[in-house]
Inverse folding.
């Protein structure tokens, strides 16, 4: 799958998503345009009108998400309503379906499991079944918001959809089972934005409380877990009901409601949902009974094809409705890898930089290209350290956080040493170049070949040159001539000497240019970091673009009011002096 890394403000995150996956976003729009027509008898214009209903409610209950959606639309070069339609596709497909669709909408079949291991740590996994036409439009999205208290997020999603199935740096994971039930309330949070809200939480209970407060616009089962607790949230437009782990520490869910939801119309949809629920429950309990369930063995359960095609795994697309298992996700929430991956990356880069600098220090003089390569590696290492430090701040285990901060401190010391070494190499090269220029200037003679005098007789200063004539002319003065061959050879020598000096000068200019570019790159990174902090502060204070523009307009209006007041005041003074004097 394509991996997209997004960082910054909500708008910037969306824009990076849209720009990096532009073709896939358009693929998602095309896929759902056909699906909505088949399942709901709605053309794309009708879908856009339905999406329009969500804009104002989302601005009220989830402004950061609507900003991200706007950025995504701009980045992909599509309309805002197209991206909103993708993010409310559950509400449209499963809540506004027709009784007699053009084609059957048995297009899902997801099976999710949460399990608490004997040591208390949670496992979370799911098979995601959907139409294979949408498979090319899947991607892995990594999201970070520096300067905020939001955890970093990694999720598998459909291009254009900002919330889906994944895990965050606090160890909170989510999976989803589609539920087909009538009814939609567009004043509440769409299911996929509810998933994103859960992934922006630091615990399963925090995620559940957020969703209880905001409610969901449509129906679906969100299984949310952290390293110690898992909660099954059966969501409908009427309300949310919670399922806890059973006595063996397991929770299994498929595509039908397990609890009673008064007032909810859930007609029969997937005949195999109850079959898969029973089969997975059986497999999980067997593994528990044999004390043989862990991260790896849980994954094996999702390969089960008993009862195919109504099976947990649908690896072969033989369904008449086209459903197949597109991916499996298996999360060990207590042993999330994000922090370790960042540490390993920083360690690898640190060792590589140390080796490169050691190699350069053994050379008499480093070339400009070698210095430029190491400078670029140092800039990359700096970015990796910033990411690692951000993850360390979000670590919820005090001991691990303390260890991570200690590692960051050591890496920062290494970084300072690397910068000192590269600065020394740059200075040594500049000093050598300065000395060479000084020597050349002090030793220059009227007949030396230089860029200013390229065809001068250079035999007096380049007696050991490769390009020196084999038989230099015997002469007592610069006007003495030799044979034609000797003259041609001497002329060629002067040209080669000129080219050699020119190449050396160009190398010097390139070295200076690379040094300037390196400095500009560092300045650019500092400015980007400052800009992100400013955006973060603005978001924290609730200052949106619209608010800023409103303040600017108000300031301009106040200026005109002040000017008018001054004019009226002086006019009043003149009238008083003129008529009452």
């Amino acid at each position: 799958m394509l991996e997209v890394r997004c960082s910054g403000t909500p708008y910037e995150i969306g824009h990076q998503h849209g720009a990096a996956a532009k073709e896939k976003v358009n693929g998602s729009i095309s896929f759902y345009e056909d699906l909505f027509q088949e399942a709901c008898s709605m053309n794309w214009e009708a879908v856009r009108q339905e999406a329009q209903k969500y804009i104002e409610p989302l601005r009220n209950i989830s402004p950061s998400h609507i900003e991200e959606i706007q950025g995504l639309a701009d980045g992909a070069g599509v309309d805002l309503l197209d991206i909103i339609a993708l993010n409310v596709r559950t509400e449209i497909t499963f809540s506004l379906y027709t009784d007699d669709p053009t084609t059957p909408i048995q297009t899902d079949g997801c099976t999710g499991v949460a399990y608490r291991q004997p040591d208390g740590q949670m496992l979370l996994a799911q098979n995601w079944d959907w139409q294979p036409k949408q498979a090319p439009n899947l991607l892995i999205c990594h999201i970070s918001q520096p300067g905020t208290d939001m955890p970093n997020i990694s999720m598998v999603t459909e291009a254009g959809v900002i919330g889906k199935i994944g895990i965050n740096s606090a160890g909170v994971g989510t999976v989803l089972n589609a539920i087909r039930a009538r009814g939609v309330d567009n004043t509440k949070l769409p299911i996929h934005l509810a998933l994103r809200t859960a992934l922006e939480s630091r615990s399963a209970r925090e995620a559940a409380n957020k969703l209880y407060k905001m409610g969901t616009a449509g129906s679906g089962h969100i299984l949310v877990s952290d390293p110690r607790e898992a909660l099954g949230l059966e969501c409908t437009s009427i309300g949310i009901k919670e399922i806890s782990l059973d006595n063996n520490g397991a929770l299994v869910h498929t595509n039908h409601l397990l609890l009673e939801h008064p007032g909810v119309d859930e007609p029969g949809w997937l005949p195999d949902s109850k079959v898969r629920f029973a089969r997975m429950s059986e497999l999980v309990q067997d593994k528990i009974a044999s004390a043989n369930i862990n991260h790896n063995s849980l994954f094996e359960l999702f390969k089960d094809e008993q009862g195919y095609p109504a099976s947990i795994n649908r690896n072969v697309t033989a369904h008449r409705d086209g459903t197949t298992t597109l991916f499996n996700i298996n999360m060990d929430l207590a042993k999330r890898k994000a922090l370790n991956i960042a540490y390993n990356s920083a360690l690898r880069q640190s060792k590589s930089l140390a080796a490169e600098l050691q190699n350069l220090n053994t050379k008499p003089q480093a070339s400009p290209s070698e210095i430029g390569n190491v400078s670029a590696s140092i800039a990359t290492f700096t970015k990796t350290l910033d990411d690692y430090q951000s993850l360390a701040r979000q670590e919820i285990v005090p001991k691990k956080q303390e260890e991570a901060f200690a590692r960051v401190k050591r890496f920062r010391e290494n970084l300072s040493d690397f910068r000192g070494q590269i600065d020394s190499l740059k200075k040594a090269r500049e000093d050598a170049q300065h000395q060479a220029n000084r020597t050349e200037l002090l030793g220059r003679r009227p007949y030396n070949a230089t860029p200013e005098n390229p065809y001068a007789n250079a035999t007096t200063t380049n007696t050991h040159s490769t390009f020196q004539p084999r038989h230099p002319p015997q002469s007592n003065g610069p006007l003495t001539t030799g044979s034609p061959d000797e003259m041609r050879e001497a002329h060629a020598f002067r040209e080669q000497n000129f080219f050699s000096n020119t190449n050396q000068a160009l190398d010097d200019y390139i070295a200076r240019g690379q040094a300037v570019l390196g400095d500009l790159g560092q300045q650019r990174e500092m400015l980007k970091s400052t800009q992100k902090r400013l955006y973060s502060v603005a978001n924290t204070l609730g200052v949106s673009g619209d608010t800023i523009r409103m303040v600017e307009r108000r300031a301009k209006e106040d200026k005109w009011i002040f000017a008018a007041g001054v004019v009226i005041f002086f006019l009043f003074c003149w009238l008083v002096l003129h008529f009452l004097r």
Observations:
- The chain has 16 helices and twelve strands.
- The CA atoms of residues 278 and 399 lie 41 Å apart.
- Residues 2-336 form a domain with the Penicillin V Acylase; Chain A fold (CATH 3.60.60.10).
- The two ends are 87 Å apart (CA to CA).
